[in-house]
Design a protein that fits this description.
46% of the residues lie in helices and 13% in strands. It has 14 helices and 9 strands. Helix 1 packs antiparallel against helix 5, helix 11 crosses helix 13 and helix 11 crosses helix 14.
């Protein structure tokens, strides 16, 4: 099917009736327009700001313009800075797709001009509907290719996706979680973004080749899981995980108790204050003052808890090599308990 040059159609209509024409989409954003002579303030704002002023937008529901089946003449509305004009809804197969406006401040549009307005609106509706269907098909194709890449590296899918999105085959990507505007939607509210020449500190870390999308998603998910487990990171990024990478990459066969059996003893206590205290003190490098401040307890109370932990686990949280094993055990247990 030959694509309609809607800009040329709009230009012809404007020239034919000797008035400015504007076509908006369903969100009242300008799509095509042609200016002939002076325009009112509402039209000027629409073109310059690429949006309709709220006072002008309110005219549409007030006059029920979307429900019209023929061109409607609207009077001048000074409070909205609108001259008199004609409005014709864009409708395709029962769906409302936008509006066509023709300025007519001096009443020069006649009944003889109305068929041309209707024809332009019909062509615009058909063109918008075709564009929407094409976008839907493209989105479905993109989502299918992304699904293939999420299953693991797939060079063919990566090449097809790069072609579809008009990006270089060697493009690199980063994953954000939660998602950000402008990216490809992924599972769990994440988005994938093409990395620019100056990539940002994304949740998935440094850019990876497009074919490694599944790995970028894994890294982003693991980073969020570490944060949920209480990781203290300079930034929420895979690159900032540090020793938490050991926890993320730990094999399923490795248990927290194997790293240090003391965690099992702490976990059996009737209250979790000892295990919480151990985490905070160890994460502060054994600094009692900083830990007491975070826990909102007096130092005397903290020292009492430290002694209890030592009695139960044999670990002095303020010194000694055993602290590292217990800390990693606490991290691993927290990571695996966190929502993945």
């Amino acid at each position: 099917m030959q694509q309609t040059d809607m800009q040329a159609v709009v230009d012809r209509l404007a020239s034919s009736v000797g008035q400015s024409v504007l076509i908006e989409d369903i969100d009242q954003l300008p799509v095509w327009w042609s200016t002939t002579g002076a325009v009112d303030g509402a039209r000027l704002k629409t073109i310059l700001d690429r949006r309709v002023d709220p006072s002008a937008a309110a005219v549409v529901p007030r006059l029920r313009l979307r429900q019209a089946t023929a061109p409607v003449h609207t009077p001048a509305i000074p409070e909205a800075d609108m001259w008199a004009r004609w409005c014709m809804p864009l409708r395709y197969e029962g769906r409302s797709l936008g509006l066509l406006w023709v300025l007519d401040p001096d009443g020069t549009i006649t009944e003889a001009d109305l068929p041309a307005i209707v024809e332009c609106a019909e062509l615009a509706a058909e063109t918008l509907a075709e564009a929407q269907e094409s976008a839907r098909q493209r989105t479905r194709q993109r989502d299918d290719l992304i699904d293939r890449l999420l299953q693991g590296p797939d060079q063919d899918a990566a090449r097809e996706l790069a072609r579809l999105e008009n990006v270089p085959a060697e493009v690199q990507i980063q994953v954000e979680a939660p998602g950000r505007p402008g990216g490809w939607p992924l599972l769990d509210g994440m988005t994938a973004h093409v990395a620019g020449s100056r990539p940002r500190a994304a949740v998935s870390g440094a850019p990876l080749p497009l074919v490694e999308l599944s790995e970028a998603v894994r890294r982003a998910a693991a980073t969020l899981r570490c944060v949920a487990a209480g990781a203290r990171l300079e930034s929420v990024s895979w690159d900032a995980l540090g020793a938490w990478r050991l926890v993320v990459e730990a094999p399923d066969s490795l248990t927290a108790e194997q790293l240090h059996p003391g965690i099992a003893v702490l976990a059996t206590q009737p209250r979790d204050e000892l295990i919480v205290t151990a985490r905070v003190v160890l994460d502060h490098g054994g600094e009692v003052a900083a830990a007491a401040q975070e826990l909102h307890v007096h130092r005397t109370t903290l020292y009492y808890r430290l002694n209890q932990v030592t009695e139960l686990t044999g670990v002095d949280l303020r010194s000694g090599p055993a602290r590292t094993n217990l800390q990693l055990a606490l991290w691993l247990a927290a990571y695996r308990a966190a929502e993945g």
